[in-house]
Design goal:
The complex is a heterodimer of chains A (about 300) and B (about 180). Chain A has about 300 residues and is mainly α. Chain A contains ten helices and two strands. Chain B has about 180 residues and is of the alpha+beta class. The chains are: A mainly alpha (about 300), B alpha+beta (about 180).
Chain lengths: ~300, ~180
């Protein structure tokens, strides 16, 4: 992915705090206002970083519609019966709960796409390298292996094709040609990992007191983001634990809580959820750019 | 073109599903009573007294006016049965007649499990809660849709909060003694 996000320039610790808060708060509070705020902020950040792709929007809409419509087929709970299907009641409550679940799922999926955009593997290693060094190395190696595997496969396949060694006449021929490449690929990957292990050892990976260079610094933006996140965390957790955010769909849909604790939670949650988008826009302002981030020339576009 | 065809196929499949599942409006569903020849009568009672009598459970249900004060969703009444009617048939006919919501799931071709009556569901009053039925005081160990009733039987549908122990089923109590 060549898309960059201004938000990803924050310190890994801030990012981890922010993402874990947003994901947990979205998924764990059964409150439609928080779910909708989360979905809105997630879509906004996605639109600002990756851009709006009609195909993806359509796919998401179909997914949300499917979740909405499938829930009443399996859950017949609820006091407002709309009609009967196969002798069982289809209720408005189940339909609304399906809609709520679809918003929740869509928000979670979008936040996870932002997470993979911002939390690159170097940041993961920076965060977990000290407490779990073995796990971090393992993660970074395996995570690197998959893209490496794919790109090498593609490269080998192209070479084979250019040499006229790819039999595309039949399914069997295709399978045999791909298998040849696959076998070479496995050999290559095994050799590569032995090489990696050797070079890591020669650089003293297992030595005690070895330090790693990192360019992350906790700046003013991090402090601001962390403060907003912490405030939202406190408000949402306290109001949630106190039952001020309570909302239930069954047996009948309750009213949206609008007490002062709930409203404060909505405001702080909304503010925290909008931090990445605000960071994004404020960076453009500073750079005097009005175009979408995806129009900014990246390594791929300039090559 | 391919996409339009795909969308049309999906729409058709959805329509076929709805058709196969037998769509009925609320009015249609409740007015379609069965009129089989009557061969006898049984007494029926549907009760959630265990919730009504315990102020500590089912707060949400009570707030929604789903639990009657005396706990009787259907007070003891005599209902007509036809040949081969099961405990489940009698319950569903009586509830449909009174337009009371209920929910069940099919376990196999013949067995069904009653999940909720009058929007009072299993697990609403703890992990050991749900609907049970008794015939003449005994708690059968088969699904209600496999238990055929006879003239003069007394059928009771009871909501338990303690795996049957609080409504008079001593199946688990007896099991407990066996283990001791």
């Amino acid at each position: 992915m060549n898309n960059e996000s201004a938000f990803s320039h924050l310190h890994p610790l801030t990012l981890m705090l922010w993402f874990s808060f947003i994901l947990c708060a979205t998924v764990l509070t059964t409150n439609p206002a928080i779910a909708l705020l989360s979905l809105f902020a997630a879509s906004l950040h996605r639109a600002l970083t990756v851009g709006v792709k009609p195909r993806q929007v359509a796919l998401m809409a179909v997914f949300m519609l499917a979740v909405t419509l499938l829930n009443p087929l399996f859950s017949h709970h609820g006091v407002t019966v709309l009609f009967f299907l196969g002798g069982l009641p289809i209720t408005r409550e189940a339909l609304l709960f399906g809609a709520f679940m679809s918003v929740l799922c869509a928000a979670a999926v979008l936040w996870c796409s932002s997470l993979s955009l911002c939390m690159t593997s170097d940041k993961v290693i920076y965060l977990f390298g000290r407490p779990f060094p073995k796990l971090a190395v393992l993660l970074s190696l395996t995570l690197r292996l998959i893209p490496l595997f794919l790109s090498e496969y593609k490269r080998m396949m192209e070479v084979r094709k250019a040499c006229g060694l790819y039999d595309s006449s039949s399914l069997f021929g295709r399978a045999r040609s791909s298998l040849t490449v696959f076998s070479a690929l496995v050999t290559m990957i095994l050799e590569d990992s032995v090489d990696t292990a050797d070079s890591m050892r020669s650089r003293g990976v297992e030595l005690k007191g070895r330090t790693a260079y990192s360019e992350y610094r906790f700046r003013r933006g991090d402090l601001l983001t962390a403060a907003v996140t912490a405030a939202a965390l406190v408000f949402v957790v306290l109001s949630g634990a106190g039952g001020y955010l309570g909302f239930s769909f069954y047996p009948s849909v309750t009213e949206l809580p609008l007490n002062s604790a709930a409203v404060a939670s909505y405001i702080f949650f909304g503010a925290a959820a909008l931090v990445p988008s605000i960071t994004e826009v404020s960076l453009w302002r500073r750079l005097n750019l009005t175009a979408c981030a995806s129009d900014i020339p990246t390594a791929k576009n300039t090559l | 073109m391919k996409r339009i065809l795909f969308a049309a196929a999906a729409l058709l499949a959805a329509a076929a599903l709805v058709f196969a599942l037998n769509y009925e409006s609320v009015e249609e569903h409740y007015s379609s009573g069965c009129s089989d020849a009557q061969t006898g009568t049984v007494t029926l009672l549907v009760s959630c007294e265990e919730i009504a009598n315990d102020s500590g459970v089912g707060q949400v249900l009570k707030a929604n006016d789903l639990v009657p004060d005396d706990g009787l969703i259907i007070p003891e009444t005599e209902v007509a049965i036809s040949d081969g009617d099961t405990a489940f048939d009698v319950l569903s006919n009586a509830l449909n007649e009174r337009r009371i919501h209920f929910d069940y799931s099919a376990i196999s071709d013949r067995s069904v499990y009653v999940k909720g009556i009058n929007n009072i569901y299993e697990y609403d009053c703890g992990d050991l809660s749900g609907w049970m039925y008794s015939v003449n005081g005994d708690f059968p160990t088969v699904s209600s849709s496999e238990y055929t009733l006879h003239d003069g039987d007394s059928l009771r549908w009871l909501y338990t909060c303690d795996l049957g122990r609080d409504v008079g089923d001593n199946y688990y109590a007896a099991q407990g003694e066996k283990h001791e």
